[in-house]
From TrEMBL:
It comes from Pontibacillus salicampi. It is found in: Membrane. Keywords: Membrane, Transmembrane, Transmembrane helix. The chain crosses the membrane at residues 20-37, 203-222, 242-268, 280-297, 309-328. Coiled coil: none annotated. This is ABC transporter permease. The keyword Transmembrane applies. It comes from the Bacteria.
Length: 356
């Protein structure tokens, strides 16, 4: 079989630059597009204007925490400019932290500490409102706890600031009392903690489809070899053509697997390495199974090119139909969706740590 593998390598080396470009194409696209997508997501954050009229510390704390929220694009300005920006629609809404904010929150009072400017066209500002409200309640509750302790404590007890900081520690990294929501789709399995997210799974599905097509393309020379009766001549001289076909199967596996692994390297680097490697290996296993099945179909066909385009179309349909299912559209019955390779890419079976 080694002779036939060398033949495949020589064919590959006839157009090395073209083949290297095809091999690296998904990796290059990911490296270029991923930062652009992240930048677009940042630019699509909710634009909100804020005016800090508070002379105390709490106003600056609230603004600092709002600026760390990725879903909010915060713009600081004067109250006059804020009203104009809201009226023009430059921002979704505006919030004014009043001059009495620190003194009122210091006593645990939250009413009339913030003025909310919005128009009838404001639709997405409620999230910013809730975020500001949560920060105000956090400060007010901490201050109220510190007031209650210091008013009933002996002179040797901790200071008001120490008690405030101790109360505030229960809010990090997440509030002590919180509600955890689990996102579910009807008929879909529960996502576990090792999930890499829908965006990464979608990219992984695209990489698997591209690598699968690359594997199919590596079978194209078989059409010419069959036309020249090469398998028949080899079978006559060696009593069988197993090494010949095995070399095509090996070339198909190497071509698709190498493309998939190289494409996934930046995905692994940009996300949690442990979970990403686990999902990449699962995708690689599915890819090898699909490629091996496709090899059997193509090797037994007398019209290699037509069969290749048919199999590529089935692979593309698997990705597209599964994505419509993920987005909630019922294009085909769920029983058919569960037979698609991309469904199994997203939903690992229980024996390898999945949920189904």
């Amino acid at each position: 079989m080694g002779i036939y593998l060398l033949l495949h390598l020589r064919r590959w080396m006839t157009h090395p630059f073209r083949n290297i470009v095809f091999l690296l194409f998904p990796c290059i696209c990911f490296l270029i597009l991923a930062p652009l997508v992240e930048r677009t997501a940042q630019e699509s954050a909710i634009p909100v204007a804020v005016v800090n009229e508070d002379d105390g510390l709490y106003g600056a704390i609230i603004i600092s925490r709002l600026q760390s929220e990725k879903r909010i694009r915060l713009e600081t300005m004067t109250r006059n400019n804020l009203e104009k920006a809201v009226q023009r629609g430059d921002v979704e809404a505006g919030f004014v932290l009043t001059a009495e904010l620190t003194s009122m929150l210091h006593t645990g009072t939250v009413r009339d500490t913030v003025i909310w400017y919005r128009t009838s066209e404001s639709n997405f500002d409620v999230f910013a409102k809730e975020k500001i409200g949560a920060e105000i309640m956090r400060i007010a509750l901490n201050a109220k706890a510190a007031n209650a302790v210091t008013n009933n404590a002996s002179p040797s007890s901790e200071s008001w600031v120490e008690i405030y900081e101790y109360a505030d520690s229960f809010w990090e990294p997440s509030p002590l009392f919180t509600v955890s929501y689990t996102e579910r789709q009807p008929g879909a399995p529960i996502e576990n903690d090792a999930d890499i997210g829908k965006g990464s799974k979608t990219v992984l599905g695209l990489f698997m489809l591209y690598a699968y097509i690359m594997g199919l393309a590596s079978m194209m020379p078989l059409q010419k070899d069959k036309a020249n009766k090469m398998p028949s001549r080899i079978a006559l001289s060696q009593s069988h053509a197993v090494p010949f076909y095995s070399s095509y199967w090996s070339a198909m596996l190497v071509s698709s697997s190498l493309t998939f692994i190289i494409a996934c390297v930046p995905l692994i680097v940009r996300s949690s390495v442990h979970e990403s490697v686990e999902w990449v290996l699962w995708g690689l296993l599915l890819l090898c199974i699909g490629v091996s099945f496709s090899f059997i179909v193509m090797a037994s066909s007398n019209r290699i090119n037509r069969t290749m385009f048919l199999l590529a179309g089935i692979g593309a349909a698997s990705f597209i139909l599964h994505m419509t299912y993920v987005m909630g559209a019922e294009v085909i019955p769920i029983s058919i969706v569960k037979a698609l390779p991309h469904y199994w890419l997203w939903n690992k079976p229980a024996f390898i740590g999945g949920e189904i």
